[in-house]
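Entry 14. Ran structure prediction on the chain below.
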Amino acid sequence: MLRIKAPASSANIGPGFDCLGIGLDVYNTYEVEPADTDILENTEERYNNRDNLFLQAYRAGCEAIGVHDHVRVRFDTQIPSTRGMGSSAAFLAAGVAAAGALHGNVFTKDDIFQLITRIEGHPDNTGPCVYGGLCASLKTDSGRWLIRQLPVHESWKFTLLVPDFEISTRQARQILPASYSRADTAASVANALMVTQALRDGDAELLQSACRDVIHEPYRAALISGYEQVRAIACEDTGGRLVISGSGPALLLISKKELSESAGQKIKSAGGHTWQMINARTAQEGIILEGI
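Output, structure tokens:
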């Protein structure tokens, strides 16, 4: 039986809107084998249908190969859905990877990345999910996606703060302005460049200055109940920086020390909601296939 592990990812990292993301060691696991009809096991009822993202991606992968068949999948999903942690990228990557592996192991990681990024529309989650680590991506003039893995200093600690409510990606995108000023655009580019430098060098002072976003966070923060309270507690306690993970509502704390127990207790009920804290490390390998 084929076993696929796909990591969570946190997109944007503050100012790196739609181009930066980091893979984190929270995994969805998929056990896959050929079948006479599509069978989905251990999944929520709302996802147990032909619109399941894994099945969509599996069909897209099969179409790219020129075959058509069915699959049996057992899901073990540790990545919360609709929280801004790359759940959809994990399902898409696993589905395409399964199609390639079950038909002669024909896909490279770049094949998987190119196909699922065309489906997803942007690379900030798909890149880290497939390749792991901190990834920067852009679309070339030919329409192909280009990706590079960037170094992350071992001293950084990552903490995901995940609330008990959802925000749809569509809602989080609709709230953004249609255009930005020249000053905001320049600031965004400069900050994104400096964030990658701070993460590479373990430079907490630079991260403090650079990890300021003007493109999406000022608008999406309004959708996240308890955001200001959580930010104040986390940053004061650790001296780190808190960013919205993807489109939210999960938040990512980047710091040199872990949250204290007292700060964690305060965050758990911030904004009248229940918050889960997940200590994470970078997922260095990206998607992992076993049993092929």
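The longest helix spans residues 182-201. Will compare against last week's run tomorrow.
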